[in-house]
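Quick start: read one record
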Amino acid sequence: MATTRITLSGPLFDGHAQEAADRFCAEITRELAEIGATWIKLDTQRMDKSGRGGTGRAAGGVEIVGQGPNWVIRGGIREGQYAWPWLEGDSKRNQSTGFKGYHSFRRTRLRLRRQAGPRIGEVLQKYLAEMGGAA
């Protein structure tokens, strides 16, 4: 009779890799949400289809909310100042007024998808050694 004993050790087996992966996800999603919110706020400077000039108040309605790896960019409503669903072009009111919206959130989402890869790779490098990968 033969007995074989296998001992598994290292970050993949002691939980350190999962902890590092969780920290990586939390950091990169928060950072990308902050970048996206900044782009949307900058985009509000072009909101001047009325010819009266933008007030800049719509930027105040952009916020990021969440925790851990779950961060979202949200645009709110403040009566008399801004209504992000309408500004984005997603409300019922857009159908009746003919205003199609600025699509700031939509364009930012697409831009982040195209441009986030290199930044994700940079942040991942900080965590690879902890995960048991190459440093």
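The chain has a mean pLDDT of 87.
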